[in-house]
Amino acid sequence: MADVFLYNTHLHITTWVVGIILFFVVLSLLKKSKEKPAKITHMVLRLFYIFIILTGALLWFSNYSHVGGSLFAESVVKSLAGVWLVAAMEMILVKVKKGKSTFLGWLQFILALILVLSLGFARLQLGILI
Ligand code: HEM
């Protein structure tokens, strides 16, 4: 059972897919000024940030911490881009709450998303069906 959680990408993919969906739910609740539901959903999203980072870190330690060369470098950039994406999502939500401009947050969101998806799916080796 432990192997499934340590080496399989399914759990990680589930956590970030749910996290990104929750992010857009909070965003639309905030836009509709539904403050209480937005606050609760945002709390759940923050819990998912932790799940995303934990499952990603588990994948990294169990598969990439001991490898060398470009694979190691790409896995580090992929992981940092993942943390960056989480930070960008949080930044956008806080700025929307305060009524400030979200342009820089979205710019970071898109850059981090491109890095994470291209490295995660196209370059790194684990794949979905392992
Ligand atoms: C919202 C944030 C994140 C997104 C959207 C994301 C996305 C992805 C994607 C698309 C994959 C490829 C899955 C596959 O090949 O089946 C992946 C794998 C991985 N992620 Fe993340 N990730 C995020 C956060 C993180 C974080 C925070 C870390 C590290 C702390 C991390 C570390 C990893 C590692 C080590 C892999 C395995 C790479 C592979 O061989 O495919 N991720 N992630």
TrEMBL record:
Record's subcellular location: Cell membrane
Alphabetized InterPro entries for the sequence: UPF0344
Pfam families assigned: DUF1516
Transmembrane spans: 13-31, 43-63, 75-94, 106-126
Membrane-protein topology: Multi-pass membrane protein
GO cellular component terms listed in the entry, alphabetical order: plasma membrane
Swiss-Prot/TrEMBL keywords: Cell membrane, Membrane, Transmembrane, Transmembrane helix
Family the UniProt entry places it in: Belongs to the UPF0344 family.
Name of the protein described by the UniProt record: UPF0344 protein EDC24_2061
Organism: Aquisalibacillus elongatus
